[in-house]
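User: Can you help me understand a structure? I only have the sequence.
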Amino acid sequence: MDAPTTSQSDSRSDMHLLAPWTCELERQVHQFIDNWLGYHADYGAEITWLPHLLRHVYGDARAQAWITAYRLED
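Assistant: Let's start by predicting it. Here is the structure, written out as tokens:
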């Protein structure tokens, strides 16, 4: 007998379990960006790499939202 498989609908019903983690990750990304903008303002830290990192980790669409919101255009 084959092992039971998880259907797509079962996967979707479990998405609510990810919501707290997603909110926390979002908060951490904002904090990370805020910290680096502070380092840039206070100490002249280089931040031109930040948009590239965001695109690499989160993909173009999601990264672009943060890049635009934080005026990190490269």
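Now, to help you interpret it: The mean pLDDT is 83. Residues 34-74 form one domain. Let me know which part you'd like to focus on.
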